[in-house]
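Revision sheet: C-alpha cells.
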Amino acid sequence: MSSGDIDALLRVTSPDYIGTSHPEIAFGTLDGPVGRLTLAVTARGVVACSYEDENVVFERISKEVGTFIGPDARRLDPVRRELDAYFSARLRAFTTPVDLRLTTQFARTVLQMMLSVPYGTVTTYREIAERIGRPRALRAVGNALASNPVCVIVPCHRVVESDAVLGGYAGGAAAKERLLRIESTGARRRPSAGA
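Predicted:
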C-alpha cells in the first residue's frame, strides 16, 4: 500500500486525522429517512450520493476520480443541510451542483434531463426517452437511471413505469415511495424563500 493509499484510508477511517491539506474529494455519509447515503464532493460538485456501501463508493471514486479522499466538513455539511431540508419537505430544489463524471455520455444526458422534472411530479421512462430524442431507448434510459451515482439530488425516483407501477429504484421500493411521499407533502406546502 502506497503512502497516498494510507493517507486516503486514514482520512476516511479516522475522523480526527487532518493531514497537511484539505482532500481533493470530500467523503462521508448521511443517515436519513431512506437509509444511509454515501456522499462524495469534488470541486465540481456532488459526485456521489449513493445507497451503495461506503467501501464500494470509495473504491470507485479512487479509481475514476482521484485518490486524495477524506472527510471535509466545509464541503460535506452544505450538502447534508440541503438533504436534511429536502427530507423534511422544506427544500424543493438543490442548489449544490452535481458532478456527473462517473456516468457515460448517454447516462449524463438522461440524468441532466431528470434535473428538469419538477418537484412533486413524476414522469415515465417513455417520456424521458422521448424528451432526449431516443423514443425506443427505454431499456437504456432505465439502465442510466439505475446507475445514477447522485441519487436523491438527481431525482431518478421521479420516474415511474406507469400511473399504477412505481418501477425500480437504487434505494429500493420503500425508499422510492418515501421520497415521493415527502415531495407530495412538500408540494402542498407554500415554498419557503430559496426553495
